Amino acid sequence: MDKPSHLVEFEHMVLGRHQVSSAKLRKEQGRLERSAYVMLSRIRIQGPMSIGELSEAFQLDASTVNRQTAHAVRAGLLRRIPDPDGGMARKFQLTPEGEREVDGERDTRVGELDQVFEDWSANDVETFARYLQRFNTSVERLSGQPWPR
Fold first, then answer.
1. Cβ count near 105 (within 10 Å)
2. What is the enclosing helix (H) or strand (E) of 118?
3. 17-55 residue pLDDT tens
4. Which of 37, 28, 19, 23 is nearest to 94 (CA)?
5. What distances in angstroms separate CA 111 from CA 14, 74, 106, 107, 115, one per listed residue?
6. What are 126-142's pLDDT values in tens digits?
7. Distance (Å, whole) CA 41 – CA 62
């Protein structure tokens, strides 16, 4: 018999494939790409971050983060600011438009999830969320890359 972790691995793989709305549809609707949404959400939660901090947080090469932030700056979602703590590196901060975009994208995603959970009880959704958070914090503990909550 398969270990329970085999079942989790399979469902995790399938989950990574699912998107409630397709990438094509999101682009047509002018919605944020997944990577931009995740990066902007992190800055929204944590506050201004430098290229180095973003690179470390996402375990990405600085050149990749530089391209992503440059695109977000051109789109008016981020702005460069001096380090509020007086450090040398400039940091990226959400613009008011960036805040609206992140909040709007989150609202849309929550609405899509509400459709998925339409036939679930509130208790089942809360239990699922607790297990998902527990799973994520365990992964974060092993990777040393906690997500601010």
1. 19
2. none
3. 776 555 555 566 668 888 999 999 999 999 999 999 999
4. 37
5. 21, 28, 8, 6, 7
6. 999 999 999 999 999 99
7. 18
